[in-house]
Amino acid sequence: MTTSGVVPQARFSAQARLRALQSDIMELILERELEAGDPLPTESELSVALGVGRNTLRESLKVLQALGVIEIRHGFGMFVAPSNFDALADGLTFRGRLSLRHQGLEALQLVDVRQALESGLIGSSIDVMTTEQLASIEEAVKQMEELAAAGENFVAADAEFHRRLFEPLNNELLINLMGVFWKVYRKIHVEIGPGNEDLVKTAAMHRSIYAAVAAGDKVSASELLNRHFDGIRRRISEAVGD
Amino acid sequence: MTTSGVVPQARFSAQARLRALQSDIMELILERELEAGDPLPTESELSVALGVGRNTLRESLKVLQALGVIEIRHGFGMFVAPSNFDALADGLTFRGRLSLRHQGLEALQLVDVRQALESGLIGSSIDVMTTEQLASIEEAVKQMEELAAAGENFVAADAEFHRRLFEPLNNELLINLMGVFWKVYRKIHVEIGPGNEDLVKTAAMHRSIYAAVAAGDKVSASELLNRHFDGIRRRISEAVGD
DNA sequence: CGAGCATCGGACGTCCTACATCCGATAACC
DNA sequence: GGTTATCGGATGTAGGACGTCCGATGCTCG
What we know:
By secondary structure, the first copy, chain A, is mostly helical.
């Protein structure tokens, strides 16, 4: 509703104008009741409709794309996007790596938040977990154990394990957020070096978490997750100490 | 180090190239060991160094700005930015409002995540809370009560209350995330209408949460927070039901 | 007659030029 | 010496030109 027309003299800062432009585009989507997957007007049409040059408009569109609001397909068009948190992951990864040059504060904060989410929600997840989902979790554990026995890294299996733990909650936002934290942690982990972690021991830790979940023991599961994160936190601290 | 020169034929998709460009910029910051507040090269210099046009470069820069990686000041220059989660808030707000047109799923998921964070971390926060911080929380409660008695809305006081609850943890990422969730919820709240909420009752609810925190009763505090969020969740469900 | 292929048009991607706007700093002026 | 005017540099905005990609239309060939 703020797009009553072309503003002859925008007296606000350029930054505010760009934000307003982004808001206008989002408002336009909401007003036209477009759903995920629906096409947006072309760049030319939008630039005319919003009274800005194509260049300025594109800068806003790229931001919206990065924010996961729209999806841009070369040579085809623009569409309302399904959730996409990749960009957020990039931003947070950057922050985490930047912080590692100091005390690793932000990296540790990231672990704190992830810990709060996982150990706080594991109980609810256990409540609604099906036997199939439980089996898929064990599958991930087995995979980790096999890879650990072979002396190989098990990044993907580890990620899968944590994802499946909270799949029962059916909360996409949560899954996305945890995926972001995971990605960031992986990048940071690479940064601080291979570490001297014991693969077999780590796999066993996940096995015990699974056991608690399978037994429906919410308290133990939460506690074990906490301990798991304590280890991660310790490793980051050690790396920064160097 | 990937910027060994101009690539004559970029065979990858445009989207991948833009992402690579963003990564290159972030790598450049990390390689040069720039800290928050340090200046970046000018647009012209960067466009030459990275082998892309100023326009293409600017699109990436705008994304990085939105992601809170860099700060752009008109007519002055670009700098490594302190944390900024405003853009994330905008993206999530959009998603939330979009979801309200359906079942309000994403909006409810947002509340779930916020609930997990708040009720999960309140215990830790109580552990390290100082008397000054406790007093500042009561201050926020009083403000809410006064505004409620006057029949006025207390958006800011409510936000302050929740922020101060977790200030003791000294976790900027958490504060930022909760700030995001708060902003999104406020926008959604406006969307679903004024509602028939009882201001006095809501203020009383916050007073009871404060009481539990002051008493060091972690279990009660967590439980009260849960109930608080149940109310929010119910209100969203009602609004969608219309 | 149908499958495969070439062409076409539209839409996004990139680059360039030009000018506007803003900011800090220098230098002139009172 | 303090204040103000000007300047230079940097970002902001606009428009145009051309490249690249994609889907679709229509043609050709089996």
